[in-house]
Design goal:
CATH superfamily of the largest domain: Chloramphenicol acetyltransferase-like domain
Strand content: 25-35%
Helix content: 25-40%
Strand order of the largest sheet: 9-18-17-16-12-15
Largest sheet: 6 strands, mixed
Distance between the termini: 60 Å
Radius of gyration: 32 Å
């Protein structure tokens, strides 16, 4: 009996998914548990395995199609089996093409032809207008006769040639991927439901840079990875969050929910979007452990292998755009969290130090806060602690 290949429900809230790529084509033999196709849903991708060994037949959803959960998208047949004749409904989101311009013009011409019967014009004027696709109803007669003449039509042609516009480029509407659709929905909901306010502080990173240089050989020996500023900031944020449990909360609709664990999310850019995997109990992790987890997340994010459960339960998200030369930015909170920390680039600036002007490496931090849950003073104390740990990393419990 033929085996149905059904679009699976990966997550309880999932209703549809996008077929990103088929690893096999019709007629290919596949082994059970072999990767059959890549499924994209929410903001992650999954490798879907074949439910049975056999030949892949009747693929009904191609790459790029959006398919409802539970729909049959193909069959796996054993030797001698045929595709079952059953009605299969695959809901696919595709961009409908517009009627070609030539077709629209043809419609206009036919309509104009009907109206032209009642328009008074000389036979020569009608012939010239027809040759140039000119609507006679739009031409006013200028001669003594109460009908359109050759001269009237020629004047219209001459004016059109002088005012010939540059060719217009066709605008393209790009279809949304499942990831981009989810980002748009979640960020819109966050910005509309959570009243954001922002706290900005400039920090001196001289000591943090020095600590990074000193620790880099040790961390590289332990993890095989280079120690980044992001690793240090994740560690600092986790420690500050542990010391300020009043920040580790979220809006619960009818109250404020205090979270029991310090879980720090890391915003990672991927193709066509952004994902936020979470370092769980980050306050209990050593700097080497955080570096290893960060490196693993970045690698698997590029491969589309971050799981949905790895992106849930965050307390606060860290978003670092410093490597792209961004001075500062106001990030949108990743729901249901109550804060997100935006990190800018490091810039050498002249600053006053004991009455002297010196050049120091400086960095901007912007904390976006949900005002339903937290107030300015509470957020300021937390941000000041982060500043203190950056400027005096000796206080950091490594």
């Amino acid at each position: 009996m033929a085996t149905d290949v059904i679009l699976p429900r990966i997550d309880p809230g999932m209703t549809e998914g996008t077929i990103r790529e088929w690893k096999k084509k019709e007629g290919d033999w596949v082994e059970k548990n072999e990767i059959l196709y890549i499924l994209e849903t929410e903001n992650v991708t999954f490798e879907v395995e074949a439910p049975e060994s056999g030949a892949l037949a009747k693929v009904m959803a191609k790459a790029g199609d959006v398919v409802a959960v539970g729909r049959v998208i193909a069959f796996i047949l054993q030797p001698g089996e045929e595709v079952p004749e059953i009605p299969v409904e695959v809901r696919v989101e595709r961009k409908e093409g517009l009627a070609p311009a030539a077709k629209l013009q043809q419609v206009q011409k036919s309509e104009a032809a009907k109206e032209s019967v009642a328009i008074k014009a000389t036979p020569l004027a009608r012939r010239i207008a027809k040759e140039h696709n000119i609507d006679l109803s739009l031409i006013k007669c200028t001669g003594r006769e109460e009908r359109i003449t050759k001269e009237d039509v020629m004047q219209v042609i001459e004016r059109a040639e002088k005012a010939e516009p540059a060719p217009m480029r066709q605008e393209e509407v790009l279809p949304l991927s499942s990831m981009r659709r989810t980002i748009a929905r979640r960020m819109t909901e966050s910005f509309q439901s959570a009243p954001h306010f922002y706290l900005l502080v400039e920090v001196d990173v001289k000591e943090l840079s020095r600590a990074r240089e000193e620790l880099m050989p040790l961390i590289e020996k332990l993890t095989g990875l280079s120690l980044t500023y992001t690793d240090l900031l994740l560690k600092i944020t986790a420690q500050a969050l542990e010391e300020h449990p009043e920040i580790n909360v979220t809006w619960a609709g009818d109250g404020i929910k205090r979270l029991s664990n310090v879980n720090v999310g890391l915003a990672i850019a991927v193709e066509d979007g952004l994902i936020v995997p979470v370092i769980r109990q980050a306050n209990t992790k050593s700097l080497a452990e955080i570096t290893s987890i960060r490196g693993d997340f970045v690698q698997r994010a590029a491969q589309g292998k971050i799981r949905l459960d790895e992106m849930r339960g965050g307390s606060l998200t860290l978003s670092n755009l410093g490597m792209f030369g961004i001075d500062q930015f106001n990030a949108i909170i990743n729901p249901p969290e109550s804060c997100i920390l935006g990190v800018g680039c490091i810039i050498d600036k002249p600053v006053a130090d004991n009455g002297q002007v010196v050049i120091r490496p400086r960095m901007n931090l912007t904390l976006s806060i949900d005002h339903r849950v937290l107030d300015g003073v509470t957020g300021s104390r937390f941000l000041q602690r982060i500043k203190e740990l950056i400027e005096l990393p000796i206080l950091l419990s490594l």
